[in-house]
Amino acid sequence: MMKSNYMRTIHFLCENKTVHHPLVENIKKRLSLDIPYLEPEELMLALQRNKHRILMIDHRDYSQLSNQIRSLPLANKVFETIVINVDKRLTTDEILSFGHLKGLFYASDTLDDISKGCSEIINGENWLPRKVSAQLLYHYRTVVESQCAPATVNLTTREIHILRSLMTGASNSQIAEDQFISEFTVKSHLYQIFKKLSVKNRVQASAWAKQHLMS
């Protein structure tokens, strides 16, 4: 594995470091890399010792682990995180709970893909599935856009984003997919938008948006 000046170390966060984790052991062998095991009570000491430590977490054990480290959130900037064995699509809130997420691997990913991703992460890159990246991009974009609503109309962040989608001619199904909500929820938001803007349809709403949300 090629090394760089930005080389960091991966530590596997687990409940019992005397029990070997098959996937972690295989990654170690594939990359010829030492991945020490770290228990929750050792996390505070890790904060003090190493500012380039990456925490690897098995998603199947995350709930139990998070209960043990509530006083030490993973969002601490010292730690970057890799989550393995994810067996479902995660909500944005779940993704954000992992703090500085650098890598996410599904249970269906191959050892080759996981090993390659870990190698890139160690060297400073991100390795996230496209849908996860899209969720994070949408989240941080709406944080910025929440400051852009005209003062005279009390629009929510979600309503602003839907208005911007209307400007592009997006259908309800496209808006639902882009914002990770149902079409029924999109229709509900559109009803509220039309009411707040005193317009009758999406054409009029789009025209309003082009006038007020172009900046």
UniProtKB/TrEMBL annotation:
Matches recorded under SMART domains: HTH_LUXR (SM00421)
Residue intervals of the HTH luxR-type domain: 146-213
UniProt protein name: LuxR C-terminal-related transcriptional regulator
Gene3D superfamilies cross-referenced by the UniProt entry: 3.40.50.2300, Winged helix-like DNA-binding domain superfamily/Winged helix DNA-binding domain
InterPro entries: CsgD-like_REC (IPR049151), Sig_transdc_resp-reg_C-effctor (IPR016032), Tscrpt_reg_LuxR_C (IPR000792), WH-like_DNA-bd_sf (IPR036388)
Keyword Ubl conjugation found: no
Source taxonomy: Bacteria, Pseudomonadati, Pseudomonadota, Gammaproteobacteria, Vibrionales
Keyword Cytoplasm recorded: no
Organism whose genome encodes this protein: Vibrio japonicus
Superkingdom classification of source: Bacteria
Cited CDD domains: LuxR_C_like
Pfam families in alphabetical order: GerE, VpsT-like_REC
